[in-house]
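WARN no homologs supplied; continuing
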Amino acid sequence: MRYLTLVFSFLAIFAMQGMAEAANPCNPCSMKANPCNPCSMKKMANPCNPCGMKANPCAMKKMNPCSMKKMANPCNPCAMKANPCSMGANPCSMNPCSASANTPIRPHAFNSFQEAVDLGKKMWSDDEGMGTAGVACLSCHADFDLLNLEKRQNFPHYVKMVGDVVTLDQMINYCLLNPMKGKQLEKNSKELTAMAAYYRAYRMKYLAAHRK
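OK structure emitted
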């Protein structure tokens, strides 16, 4: 009899503790009073549930940066309306080096460097049409004479006869005006280009023959 009394006493104590815990508002497993009960099975209704869809920061809404509707997202850096590289607003869409937009310096003159050299050779050999002195360029510069090619200088450089630093085009015009008693060639003319082209070919021939 005493044994049964002890058993019932223990059962009563455990029952009282269970009722106290259920009514305890600080009990983390209390189903009624604790809105953040981690033991709650109704996860979708739990306001403290990080996976609740209502509070989910990745919910599929317009402002969601992970939303697939990129065009509607004002914060999407890839939205085409704000894309700085869109073709409509792209400052590089128009090529500034496009040939169709350029202003030519003269009508088309040559299709190759050799064409310019061939014309230049005729002009360097002309002792009648280039001036009134009756001399041609090659009258003084045959066999590479008096060109100082052995100095291996590139234009512009100082020329003693001129007394100044000149470009190749300026040197050609100086010779036309002075020793040859002719007229200067216009700076963008095909004739001046041809004279300069022949000088380059003539100099390259000299350098090839006098390689060290």
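The beta strands are 157-159, 164-166.
OK
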